[in-house]
Amino acid sequence: MPPEERGGALSEAVEPAAGYDGPRLAASGSVRVRVPAKINLHLGVGPRRPDGFHELTTVYQAISLYDELTADRADRLELVVEGEGADVLPTDENNLAVRAAVLLADHLGVPPRVRLHLRKQIPLAGGLAGGSADAAAALVACDALWDGGLDRNELATLAADLGSDVPFLVPGGTALGTGRGEVLSPVLAVGTWHWVVAVADGGLSTPTVYAKLDALRDAGTVPAEGVGAPDELLAALRQHDPRVLAAALANDMQAAALALRPTLARTLDAGLAEGALAALVSGSGPSCLFLAADADHAASVAARLTTHGVCRTVRTAHGPVPGARTTP
Ligand code: ATP
């Protein structure tokens, strides 16, 4: 097996669950799902709740950076990963795609027999929710493979057990997330937005960034009230003027990500110097996002940003795009 492709069987052949009354597999033997990355156009972080999660007010957008998951019939549960992070990602039940398949199988009362093949392009631990995306993809793929017949709301409800960002990656598009991010409301967003994504070397752990934000707030280094409600951002999304949107983008996690990775300031400055309309850290970082006026502008900002040597790689993307979907 090449080093960039790892995986294997997670279990011996699994016996059907008690009460399972026969195969519920789809006629076709293979299902392919494409799932996008997410960005946060507004990420307001409230106080830490008694359950350890922070209260969030966020506006998600799904963008055109994709992972692809293929689910095939098998006599056991196995996962193979190739692409971004394949050398470090777990292929056992610590992988969110596997956890999603097991959760869905339990819910449907079917044995978790599936071979998952994950082709990752979404950078790992980059603040782009790649792991959550793979979980959403696995729910959609396995539901089709096992003929579960769950609708998108049922899948999103299951998704909330897997992580705060997973429910959004089922419908995708643009949405308001509250609670810990899993309570979704639709958002009216006009047109398409163009982004440049600067992918950093190495990831940042989301819990570490939250802990840093708490520490900065406790020390009074950053204001505890944060960026507040996303009213300005929601109004900007209805206008489709990139300059208006640029002024409304906001991320409470940015100060903590910059404190942990000060070199990100150089990345943000470089994008602005090359003409981006706005620059911000993506989610908990360390990926950085730049808003462009249109697709050509995004391509030229990306090309020039590449020459600064301030990140591992630069990609362009547009949003909103749909969430996890089967593809031919
Ligand atoms: P978020 O913005 O939701 O915090 P992120 O983009 O910062 O996410 P992920 O790429 O989702 O981070 O990865 C976070 C961690 O989750 C990884 O370090 C990895 O150990 C774990 N993980 C489990 N399954 C996956 C998966 N399929 N893809 C990526 N990471 C996974």
Automatic annotation (TrEMBL):
Origin: domain of life: Bacteria
InterPro entries xref list: GHMP_kinase_C_dom (IPR013750), GHMP_kinase_C_sf (IPR036554), GHMP_kinase_N_dom (IPR006204), IspE (IPR004424), Ribosomal_Su5_D2-typ_SF (IPR020568), Ribsml_uS5_D2-typ_fold_subgr (IPR014721)
Keywords, comma-separated and alphabetical: ATP-binding, Isoprene biosynthesis, Kinase, Nucleotide-binding, Transferase
Residues of the GHMP kinase N-terminal domain: 95-173
Domain GHMP kinase C-terminal: 233-309
An annotated Gene Ontology molecular function: ATP binding
Key word Glycosyltransferase present: no
Metabolic or biological pathway, per its Swiss-Prot or TrEMBL entry: Isoprenoid biosynthesis; isopentenyl diphosphate biosynthesis via DXP pathway; isopentenyl diphosphate from 1-deoxy-D-xylulose 5-phosphate: step 3/6
Catalytic activity: 4-CDP-2-C-methyl-D-erythritol + ATP = 4-CDP-2-C-methyl-D-erythritol 2-phosphate + ADP + H(+)
Function: Catalyzes the phosphorylation of the position 2 hydroxy group of 4-diphosphocytidyl-2C-methyl-D-erythritol.
Protein name (Swiss-Prot/TrEMBL): 4-diphosphocytidyl-2-C-methyl-D-erythritol kinase
Lineage: Bacteria, Bacillati, Actinomycetota, Actinomycetes, Micromonosporales
